[in-house]
Amino acid sequence: MTANAVRLVEVGPRDGLQNEPRVLPTETRISLIERLVAAGLRHLEVGAFVSPRWVPQMAGSDEVMRCLAPLPGVTYSALVPNERGLDAALANGCREVAVFAAASDAFSQRNINCSIAESLERFEPVLSKAREAGIAVRGYVSCALGCPFAGDVALADVVRVSTELYRMGCYEISLGDTVGRGTPGKTKALIEACASEMPVTALAGHFHDTYGMAIANLYAALEAGVRVFDSSVSGLGGCPYSPGATGNVATEDVVYLLGEQGLQTGIKLEALVDTGHFIDQKLGRVTASRTARAVIARRGRTGERIPN
Ligand code: HMG
Ligand code: MG
């Protein structure tokens, strides 16, 4: 990655769709992913090998994974909560997985039915098996800026879990503001605290937009040196185990911000807006992206499309 490049991890097909009330057929999920790739996304989280009783929207992730044509430079990843999830991911051709821990025990219990300590024990064999299979593992730390059940979360707890996942072999730690209550000052402190224990290049930001702070928090993390961000086309979704939380920062808004800052993402904004419109129609929702609304309104006024 060049010095002025930022990598986006598109989590709409997973984090986005897992929380939409309408469960989509796998063909629609695959079509969404293919459109995102055509728009220039190169790292996409396409599903989750979790219990379909816990998250029915992610059932069929095996079929989604199997139907995606491998493309040079494109990574399709999936969430796995345990060894069984990893086995299913591997059996369906997945070449990158993500384990998901939390910095709050209350959230960990509700999300994956075990404590933080138990989850880390569960991830050890996942990481060693993934290493043997030669596939990369990303690590999530949820509740990095607060917990939907326990409220404030100590920075020291976030740093401890992040460091542990990094030590276990996760190549990148995505710090999740699961509940979307963070603010830029807290984000800066979070990044600085984690970067004191691991390289800032191993950190990613994952911001939900519940209080409208996601893009501001992303910018604070960018200023603190982070160059990898998770985002969701059209600002889809949320987390089924984080009541009231809204979707991720919208990919369209991030692409606009970074482009205007002179940072390269390789993503075509107009094609991305069209992809957001495609999935919104399938879900019967309106976009949460301010940039998408502005682009669509401008097209209506002038017919103009931004050259990609
Ligand atoms: P459990 O009940 O403790 O475990 O659930 P279990 O071993 O007793 O299994 C329960 C059932 O799940 C059994 O089936 C198992 O066979 C099945 P049943 O007897 O009920 O028919 N099972 C599985 N099925 C498919 N794939 C598997 C698997 N493992 C067991 N891998 C478990 C524990 C982890 C399975 C469950 O709690 C679970 O699936 N949780 C998933 C929760 C989830 O996906 N949450 C959303 C993602 S996290 C997130 O969104 C945050 C993030 O975006 C970052 C941020 O914003 O902060 C990443
Ligand atoms: Mg999330």
Q: What's the end-to-end separation, in Å?
A: 20 Å
Low-confidence blocks of residues: none
Spatial sequence of strands, sheet with the most strands: 1-8-7-6-5-4-3-2
Give the CATH class: Alpha Beta
Q: H/E series, N to C?
A: EHHEHEHEHHEHEHEHEHHH
Number of strands: 8
**Over the alpha carbons, how many angstroms does the gyration radius reach?**
18 Å
Bound molecules: 3-hydroxy-3-methylglutaryl-coenzyme A, magnesium ion
GO molecular function, one term: metal ion binding
Family: Belongs to the HMG-CoA lyase family.
Keywords: Lyase, Metal-binding
Enzyme class: lyase
Throw out a few tags for this protein.
binds magnesium ion; TIM Barrel; eight-stranded parallel beta sheet; 308 residues; Aldolase_TIM; alpha/beta; 12 helices; 44% helix; binds 3-hydroxy-3-methylglutaryl-coenzyme A; lyase; hydroxymethylglutaryl-CoA lyase
Account of the protein in words:
This protein has one domain (7-269): TIM Barrel (Alpha-Beta Barrel). Helix content is 44%, strand content 14%. It has twelve helices and eight strands. The protein has an eight-stranded parallel sheet with strand order 1-8-7-6-5-4-3-2. Helix 6 (116-133) packs parallel to helix 7 and helix 8 (184-195) runs parallel beside helix 9. The longest helix is centred in the middle third of the chain and has 18 residues, at 116-133. It is globular, with a radius of gyration of 18 Å. The relative contact order is 0.15. Bound molecules: 3-hydroxy-3-methylglutaryl-coenzyme A and magnesium ion (MG). The site of 3-hydroxy-3-methylglutaryl-coenzyme A has 26 residues, from helix 4, helix 5 and strand 5.
